[in-house]
DNA sequence: GAGTTTTCTTGACTCTTTCAAGATTACGGA
DNA sequence: TCCGTAATCTTGAAAGAGTCAAGAAAACTC
């Protein structure tokens, strides 16, 4: 099945209407993981030059709410999106250049999901962000 | 030693100038953990009615950079600050009302600091945010 | 106490994101 | 295939958090 066909199916399974902006947004996020909204808007306009920025914002929010995309937003950065959902992976962010990479957690399947004292909270997700320096920035500094 | 005396000492040890806005910001964050910038601005103006919002932003940034405060910013919220630094604790955020509580990580001293595949990054911090529902919101929902 | 440097005040401004109203499009059923 | 309804998109404005810049004030050094 074509990519577009897969995206269409994903939308239908989520009971969302299939629209050109949404397909283009899905395509853009799949092709540019960890991209910010502005980059995605540009990417989407490669397919649909006339799309409004509002449609992209709406689509990103809708698709995120439906679980088709995941929003990540390390402190101090704008929102970024990725298409890898449902596998509980985490991210490492470079303090130098801001680049983001995926990491699987060392601890296992639902890492750290047990807090020492949960204060009575019902916890359903543990989000881990590793901060550090990427190879390129390490090299440049040395 | 008075609180103010302690804060003054903290500033000097960090090689920062001791100014009234900074003392008031330290005091405000110690008294209102997890408060956002706007609440802190109001709290600071309880002591220093004429302080500018810029001074509060500057102080928060400076104190955070110096390691005297810690900035936390779960996705979708504005920046919040706390005075508990250096002990690698984490946070649980309520999806319902947004309240934040401190948690110590179950895994040990430097939880999750070892990613399964670090992509060559030099990792220096692992930030964990637990998402869930607080007791009050759980109660209200039932 | 004087000089130097940092910090604060003031006010405007940027950037990301959201709101609102009307036009358009997608989908279910005839 | 066409219609009606409801969701979605376009357009344009605006809100909110945070930053920039220039001059005034305060803190520290000697």
How would you describe this structure in keywords?
homodimer, three-stranded mixed β-sheet, DNA-binding, 6 strands, 142 residues, 2 domains, alpha+beta, Dna Ligase, domain 1, three-stranded antiparallel β-sheet, Arc Repressor Mutant, subunit A
In short:
Two copies of one chain form a homodimer. Chain A has 142 residues and is α+β, with helices and mostly antiparallel strands. Chain A has helices at residues 3-13, 20-31, 37-47, 53-65, 135-141; strands spanning 35-36, 70-72, 80-82, 90-94, 100-103, 122-133.
Write the layout of secondary structure elements.
2 copies of one chain form a homodimer.
Chain A: H1 3-13, H2 20-31, E1 35-36, H3 37-47, H4 53-65, E2 70-72, E3 80-82, E4 90-94, E5 100-103, E6 122-133, H5 135-141
Parallel strand pairs in A: 4-6
Antiparallel strand pairs in A: 1-3, 2-3, 4-5
Helix pairs in contact in A: 1-2, 2-3, 2-4, 3-4
The structure holds a DNA duplex (30 and 30 nucleotides).
